[in-house]
Amino acid sequence: MKEHFNFAYTSDLLIFGINSQAENNIRALSKKYLSILLVKRTKEPFKDKWCLPGGFILNDETSKEATERILKKETGLNKVYLEQVKVHDELNRDPRGRVISLSYMALIDRTLIKEELNSEASWFDLSITEKNNNLKITLTNGEDIIEYKVKRKTNDQKSQQYSYETSPNDLSFDHAELIIEGLMTLRDKVNNTDIVFNLMPKYFTIGELKQVYELLLGKKLINSAFRRVIANRILVTDKIIKTGGHRPSKLCKYKGE
Questions:
Q1: Using CA atoms, how far apart are residues 187 and 168, in angstroms rounded to an integer?
Q2: Structural domain spans, the chain
């Protein structure tokens, strides 16, 4: 009879956010940035390496409750979009012992965050470029740069089978794989669901929405085609906004609210 071993049960959280930054050209729309929150470890293993926010799931809480607690601690937010991505139970994924983790994805509008980040936390801007089935994913916070080259193993755009190469300045544990899996899951849902609206404020312009789609898909979209795709997903309101030298733009909101 095989011996049963104790294991730790944890939650790792991918917090994806959208933020805006004004351009020097007053006629240009504010530039959108896709980012992910990382935390620098203060102790071994992987001391001084970046990792995803996470923690142990307590005896009196579910994995989702633990994830909501971690999210609240890191951002001050609750009642945001949360989705479980995967169960990670690979052997030897943690040098301290057997650890089984559930990865969750949270999507937020960063303008809602009012609290200061913890001193060991930092937002990393995410950029994605794709050519054929090859993707380049870059994370940077202005000081540290982490890069991944990802290739789908088949031509099926919904396939979760892929290989990747990491940069020398990699993340702690297997969190590189968790981030890539989360990003691929998010990208695959963008075209088939309304998931992207969880990253948007209540009111937005079509131009702002298009920027976010382009960030997630890693490519430029044709204006006319994009408007046709999202026409049945948004409501155009009577609210307007004037930015720089542009004529006023009508604000929209998600139709599914």
A1: 25
A2: 8-190, 195-254
Distance CA 139, CA 124 (A): 6
Assigned token pair, 37: 């929150």
The second-level CATH assignment, the architecture, of 8-190 is Alpha-Beta Complex (3.90)
pLDDT in tens, 82-111: 999 999 988 888 888 889 999 999 999 998
Residues 25-61: tens digit of each pLDDT: 445 567 899 999 999 999 999 999 999 999 999 999 9
List, as one string, the DSSP characters of 136-174. EEEEESSS-EEEEEEEESSS-TT---EEEEE-SS--STT
What pTM does this model have? 0.90
Q: Which residues face 252 on adjacent strands?
A: 204, 236
Q: By the 8 A CB rule, do 35 and 17 touch?
A: yes
- Which helix (H) or strand (E) is 37 found in, with range? strand 31-40
Q: Which amino acid is at 65?
A: E
Q: How many CB atoms lie within 10 A of CB 233?
A: 14
As given in the structure block, the two tokens for residue 68 are: 């909501």
Instruction: Choose the CATH number for 195-254 among 2.40.50.730, 1.10.10.10, 2.40.37.20, 3.30.420.40.
Output: 1.10.10.10
Confirm whether 68 is a catalytic residue: no
Question: Are the C-beta atoms of 128 and 139 separated by less than 8 Å?
Answer: no
Give me the residue label for tokens 């088949």.
Answer: 154
Active-site annotation holder among 44, 61, 115, 120: 120
**Fold match, 8-190 / 195-254:** no
Pairwise CA distance, residues 56 & 72, whole Å: 15
